[in-house]
Amino acid sequence: MYEIIEKKNLGEGMNVYKINVPDVAAKARPGQFVVLRVHEKGERIPITIAGNDEINGSITILVQTVGKTTHLLSELSAGNKLADVVGPLGIPSEIDNFGTVICMGGGFGIAALHPIAKALKEHGNHIISIIGARRKDLLLMESEMKEASSELLVATDDGSYGAKGFVTDVLKKLVVDNKRIINRVIAIGPVPMMKAVSDFTKSYNIKTIVSLNPIMIDGSGMCGACRVLVGGKTKFACVDGPDFDAHEVDFENLVNRQRFYKEEEKAAYECHMKQHHSNM
Amino acid sequence: MENINKNLQSDATVKEGKLSTKERLQIKRHEMPMQDPQERIKNFNEVPFGYSPEEAIEEAKRCIQCKSEVPECVKGCPVNIDILGFINLIEKGDFLAAAKKIKETNSLPAICGRVCPQEDQCEKLCVIGRRKDTPSVAIGNLERFVADYKAKYGNLHFEVNSFINPGKNKKVAIVGGGPAGLATAGDLRKMGYGVTIYEALHEIGGVLMYGIPEFRLPKDILLRELQILKDMGVEVITNAVVGKTVTVDELLNKKGYSAVFIGTGAGTPKFLNIPGEELNGVYSANEFLTRVNLMRAYNKNEYDTPIKSCGNTFVVFGAGNTAMDAVRTALRLGYHDARIFYRRSRKEMTARLEEIHHAEQEGVKFDFLVNPVRFIGDENQNVKQVECLKMELGEPDESGRRRPVPIKGSEFTTDIEGAVIAIGTNANPIVPQSTPGMELNKWGYIIANEETGKTTKKGVFAGGDIVTGAATVILAMGAGKKAAASIDEYLKIGIW
Ligand SMILES: Cc1cc2nc3c(=O)[nH]c(=O)nc-3n(C[C@H](O)[C@H](O)[C@H](O)COP(=O)(O)OP(=O)(O)OC[C@H]3O[C@@H](n4cnc5c(N)ncnc54)[C@H](O)[C@@H]3O)c2cc1C
Ligand SMILES: Cc1cc2nc3c(=O)[nH]c(=O)nc-3n(C[C@H](O)[C@H](O)[C@H](O)COP(=O)(O)OP(=O)(O)OC[C@H]3O[C@@H](n4cnc5c(N)ncnc54)[C@H](O)[C@@H]3O)c2cc1C
Ligand code: FES
């Protein structure tokens, strides 16, 4: 159990893993996540399930190295085992026939978005996916997203591929210039991106769903670390979400809460990297 | 009173043991030696050291061995430990036999000796304690002593195996590895059933693991007790959130369990619902304690989970065991000024007396009749102040306690660096929502028969905090034991 059966480095600190965890693979639905620990003294971190293979009993996750725990994970390879994987957690994304749905992803959010886009397409929606990256070579999962969508649009910060600019620029163009009728937008990625999408769609009254990523511990409603403000009310992202109506979310609060342990995280990372290099 | 006098007179057999009742009453209660308060707030080690064998024997001599059919102290024990019997064995110096006697009815004595509210249970009814000048026998300390003695010198494994009845070809799933689930698992295993515990977290133990701190219940002791269960053949599956990873219906219909016991606790924290509660530095007690206990954040050289670990003022709202644990943890993390803010008065505090005493010795300040109205943050959204109202006691409420009412215009602010909200918990909805046919009460707790643990769903039993709301370790264990007996009956006769 919890064995890494495949690992692929996508560059720039991004890694895809296939992990053997049959119970989770059998149950996972789009939009759900796992909580994992890399080692016995490690932290519990939440990671979205990007895909599941019921027959082989494995799930796919895509992880960006941002600190100590994700770095420790990046050092593992196929054959290594994780200490713990628990899931599938959270409420699955709402999958129905909405009409035309825009699926927007940035960074590891694209991995989270992929199963949702796929399921929505299977439910007869017209899927327009907009994915972005800083440069062409950093774009994630382009072919997979193409398959899961009716139309795929790409934006790169430097214009090396697709439109130049942010995914929100592409969205604005679709809605404002092309006057496309959009029934729903799903946005998963860094908080500033989700907020920008939300601010825009609010003014056009387009229902928008975001997947929130506050700091979590148990992931099952026990600790309240993951609380977010939605419509002025306290919600637990792990059991009430992680998907929420974007127009109700207090993004500023989310960003602040994500930052709470910055100093401790930085110290832990630096200390870890120092040891890491002296061991090499 | 009548009972007391009768017991004090009937000391015939006590005389055989050489000491007269009068002599026994003259022995002073032995308090356990403990770490100095100024030292212990710098570490997470257990506060009391426990009795030496000599101290235990001396304390045991204080028991006058009441002659009533059911001694008063036993009436106060939710699991009816033969208190008289085990204390008598301690007096004789046969500590291992005393340990065995307790184990007949209580599978976790090292834990109960440490965390039970004895002053509300056995020690409350203790006949000599009800006299004016003699404190009760220190039953909890003695229970703890024999359990620790046994762990040190006894042969745990021999007994483990001699307990277990021949195998039965039916198995039972236990949902949740807290005291309720552990007690059910232990008893069913002894009866010979196959038992599997499904636990959401990466370690079993429930509140004993994630809530109660090391300085009150060392993890080594808990792990030792958990290991005994595993050695008895109880299977443990961690990282299994029932309702998500597997459902109750699947356990019954697909995984081959003949019955399911639900002991998931009341583990969802309540908040105050006041402005500023979302600020950084305002924690639920569960988050704060889980970081420190389950994730061992206090040991930051070895463990990865972060916690803020210094500052000046740290305030905890509440006055139960959880609040005491949180405030004493804050002191140990390095906050200089750790305080309890409670909206009622001292009399209404629900924590164990010993915890309140220990907190006071350690320099925790108590502010009564104050209620928070909002938290105020700095430019980075970290909490920097709390505004409170002063309260006064009005008419009694439904709980019989005088209701605190705000005093108009009495607002005041306190500068703080951290706050914990320890005002109780709600039922966690994951299992109920995923278990059709199992009825809940209006607060979301599972409806179960008090005597049998039977829920409204066939084959499903429940007990502990998920049925009663937040209560105690021993009540959860008691519910587990009753459920185990009724599961046995159900599996034998097959009729619901
Ligand atoms: C529901 C959910 C799904 C997620 N899915 C993915 C995913 O598919 N791929 C991916 O790469 N990342 C995902 N994340 C983010 C991931 O959990 C964090 O990047 C990771 O915890 C960072 O840990 P670290 O020790 O490497 O970094 P640290 O240096 O500890 O922290 C870096 C930043 O990560 C965040 N973080 C730290 N600890 C936690 C924690 N326990 N829980 C949540 N966030 C934390 C904080 O905002 C912090 O500032 C998800 C988060 C959530 C809540
Ligand atoms: C900080 C604190 C201090 C306390 N101090 C004392 C004290 O000194 N004395 C005393 O007598 N009582 C004390 N109590 C109360 C006591 O701990 C509880 O009453 C008791 O633990 C309840 O036992 P339980 O088995 O019902 O639930 P819990 O101990 O809550 O255990 C429930 C278990 O079920 C697991 N679980 C939950 N949901 C699921 C799911 N869906 N699937 C699988 N597993 C699940 C949880 O992770 C947990 O391990 C304290 C409580 C707290 C919080
Ligand atoms: S992560 Fe603990 S309640 Fe959500």
The helix fraction of chain A, in percent, is: 25-40%
Task: Determine the CATH superfamily of the largest domain in chain A.
Answer: Nucleotide-binding domain of ferredoxin-NADP reductase (FNR) module
What's the CATH architecture name of the largest domain in chain A?
A: 3-Layer(aba) Sandwich
CATH fold field value of the largest domain in chain A: Rossmann fold
Biggest interface between protein chains, with counts per chain?
A-B, 41 and 43 residues
* The first-level CATH class name of the largest domain in chain B: Alpha Beta
DSSP, total strands of chain A:
16
Strand line-up in the sheet with most strands of chain B: 3-2-1-4-16
Bound molecules: flavin-adenine dinucleotide, FE2/S2 (inorganic) cluster
Give unreliable regions of chain B as ranges. Answer: 1-15
Strand content of chain A: 25-35%
Percent helix of chain B, as a range, is 25-40%
- Note the gap between the termini of chain A: 29 Å
Number of domains of chain B: 3
What's the CATH superfamily of the largest domain in chain B, by name? FAD/NAD(P)-binding domain
Determine the number of helices of chain A (DSSP H or I, runs of at least 4 residues).
9
N/C terminus separation of chain B: 44 Å
What is the CATH C level class of the largest domain in chain A, in words? Alpha Beta
